[in-house]
Specification:
about 140 residues, D-tyrosyl-trna(Tyr) Deacylase, Chain: A, alpha/beta
Length: about 140
Protein backbone atom coordinates (compact mmCIF):
# COMPACT_ATOMS: atom_id res chain seq x y z
CA UNK A 1 0.00 0.00 0.00
CA UNK A 2 1.09 3.52 -0.73
CA UNK A 3 -0.07 6.79 0.73
CA UNK A 4 0.61 10.42 -0.04
CA UNK A 5 0.02 12.32 3.19
CA UNK A 6 -0.44 16.09 3.23
CA UNK A 7 -0.61 18.19 6.37
CA UNK A 8 -3.62 20.40 5.78
CA UNK A 9 -5.43 23.34 7.23
CA UNK A 10 -8.82 22.18 5.97
CA UNK A 11 -9.64 19.73 3.17
CA UNK A 12 -12.68 18.56 1.25
CA UNK A 13 -13.73 16.19 -1.50
CA UNK A 14 -16.67 16.63 -3.88
CA UNK A 15 -18.44 14.18 -6.15
CA UNK A 16 -20.76 15.63 -8.82
CA UNK A 17 -20.88 18.97 -6.99
CA UNK A 18 -21.77 17.40 -3.61
CA UNK A 19 -19.31 17.58 -0.72
CA UNK A 20 -18.94 13.99 0.51
CA UNK A 21 -16.12 14.51 3.01
CA UNK A 22 -14.43 17.49 4.65
CA UNK A 23 -12.72 18.82 7.72
CA UNK A 24 -11.79 22.31 8.91
CA UNK A 25 -8.60 23.19 10.75
CA UNK A 26 -5.52 21.05 11.21
CA UNK A 27 -5.56 17.47 9.92
CA UNK A 28 -4.23 15.13 7.26
CA UNK A 29 -5.38 14.59 3.68
CA UNK A 30 -4.37 11.06 2.68
CA UNK A 31 -4.42 9.54 -0.81
CA UNK A 32 -4.24 5.73 -0.60
CA UNK A 33 -3.20 3.34 -3.38
CA UNK A 34 -3.50 -0.45 -3.28
CA UNK A 35 -1.43 -2.96 -5.23
CA UNK A 36 -1.65 -6.72 -5.79
CA UNK A 37 -0.77 -8.69 -2.68
CA UNK A 38 -1.83 -6.00 -0.21
CA UNK A 39 -3.62 -7.38 2.84
CA UNK A 40 -5.81 -6.39 5.79
CA UNK A 41 -2.65 -6.53 7.89
CA UNK A 42 -0.99 -3.93 5.67
CA UNK A 43 -4.12 -1.78 5.88
CA UNK A 44 -3.95 -1.96 9.69
CA UNK A 45 -0.23 -1.12 9.60
CA UNK A 46 -0.88 1.91 7.39
CA UNK A 47 -3.71 3.07 9.68
CA UNK A 48 -1.47 2.87 12.76
CA UNK A 49 1.26 4.79 10.95
CA UNK A 50 -1.14 7.52 9.83
CA UNK A 51 -2.65 7.86 13.30
CA UNK A 52 0.73 8.27 15.01
CA UNK A 53 2.76 10.07 12.31
CA UNK A 54 4.26 13.20 13.94
CA UNK A 55 3.91 15.73 11.12
CA UNK A 56 1.37 18.16 12.54
CA UNK A 57 2.34 21.44 14.22
CA UNK A 58 4.85 21.08 17.08
CA UNK A 59 5.62 17.51 15.95
CA UNK A 60 2.22 16.25 17.05
CA UNK A 61 0.28 13.35 15.54
CA UNK A 62 -3.44 12.99 14.90
CA UNK A 63 -3.57 10.71 17.94
CA UNK A 64 -1.98 13.41 20.11
CA UNK A 65 -4.53 16.12 19.34
CA UNK A 66 -7.51 14.29 17.84
CA UNK A 67 -6.90 15.79 14.40
CA UNK A 68 -9.15 14.49 11.59
CA UNK A 69 -8.11 12.68 8.43
CA UNK A 70 -9.60 12.77 4.94
CA UNK A 71 -8.85 9.43 3.25
CA UNK A 72 -9.30 9.12 -0.51
CA UNK A 73 -8.62 6.10 -2.73
CA UNK A 74 -6.08 6.86 -5.46
CA UNK A 75 -5.21 4.01 -7.84
CA UNK A 76 -2.96 6.36 -9.82
CA UNK A 77 -0.34 6.10 -7.05
CA UNK A 78 0.59 2.84 -8.77
CA UNK A 79 0.83 4.39 -12.24
CA UNK A 80 4.06 3.75 -14.15
CA UNK A 81 5.16 6.30 -16.74
CA UNK A 82 8.80 5.22 -17.11
CA UNK A 83 8.22 4.11 -20.70
CA UNK A 84 6.37 6.06 -23.32
CA UNK A 85 4.04 8.96 -22.67
CA UNK A 86 1.05 7.08 -21.34
CA UNK A 87 1.12 5.59 -17.83
CA UNK A 88 0.24 1.96 -17.24
CA UNK A 89 -1.82 0.89 -14.26
CA UNK A 90 -0.73 -2.76 -14.09
CA UNK A 91 0.54 -2.44 -10.50
CA UNK A 92 -2.76 -1.02 -9.23
CA UNK A 93 -5.09 -3.58 -7.68
CA UNK A 94 -8.51 -3.91 -9.34
CA UNK A 95 -11.45 -2.22 -7.63
CA UNK A 96 -12.84 -5.40 -6.11
CA UNK A 97 -9.51 -5.87 -4.28
CA UNK A 98 -8.69 -2.23 -3.57
CA UNK A 99 -12.03 -0.96 -2.26
CA UNK A 100 -12.27 -3.32 0.74
CA UNK A 101 -8.66 -2.55 1.68
CA UNK A 102 -9.15 1.22 1.56
CA UNK A 103 -12.30 0.66 3.65
CA UNK A 104 -10.16 -1.38 6.07
CA UNK A 105 -7.69 1.50 6.48
CA UNK A 106 -10.64 3.76 7.36
CA UNK A 107 -12.15 1.17 9.74
CA UNK A 108 -8.82 0.66 11.49
CA UNK A 109 -8.33 4.41 11.89
CA UNK A 110 -11.81 4.75 13.38
CA UNK A 111 -11.11 1.82 15.73
CA UNK A 112 -8.05 3.74 16.94
CA UNK A 113 -10.31 6.70 17.72
CA UNK A 114 -9.77 8.82 14.62
CA UNK A 115 -12.37 11.09 13.04
CA UNK A 116 -12.18 10.07 9.38
CA UNK A 117 -13.88 11.57 6.35
CA UNK A 118 -13.72 9.82 2.97
CA UNK A 119 -14.18 10.25 -0.72
CA UNK A 120 -16.31 7.89 -2.81
CA UNK A 121 -14.51 4.89 -4.28
CA UNK A 122 -14.38 4.84 -8.08
CA UNK A 123 -16.01 8.25 -8.46
CA UNK A 124 -14.54 11.26 -10.22
CA UNK A 125 -13.62 13.42 -7.25
CA UNK A 126 -12.50 17.00 -6.78
CA UNK A 127 -10.14 17.28 -3.83
CA UNK A 128 -9.36 20.66 -2.29
CA UNK A 129 -7.02 21.40 0.57
CA UNK A 130 -4.75 24.02 1.99
CA UNK A 131 -1.40 22.26 2.27
CA UNK A 132 0.12 23.58 5.49
CA UNK A 133 3.86 24.07 5.16
CA UNK A 134 3.67 22.81 2.46
CA UNK A 135 4.24 19.43 4.04
CA UNK A 136 3.81 16.21 2.05
CA UNK A 137 5.24 12.74 2.73
CA UNK A 138 5.08 9.45 0.87
CA UNK A 139 4.49 6.24 2.84
CA UNK A 140 4.74 2.64 1.71
CA UNK A 141 3.91 -0.40 3.83
Amino acid sequence: MRAVVQRADGASVEVAGETVGEFAGEGLCVLVGVTHGDTKEKAAQLARKLWTLRILQDEKSCSDIGAPLLVISQFTLYGDARKGRRPTWNAAAPGEVAEPLVDEVVAQLRALGAKVETGRFGARMRVALTNDGPFTVFLEV
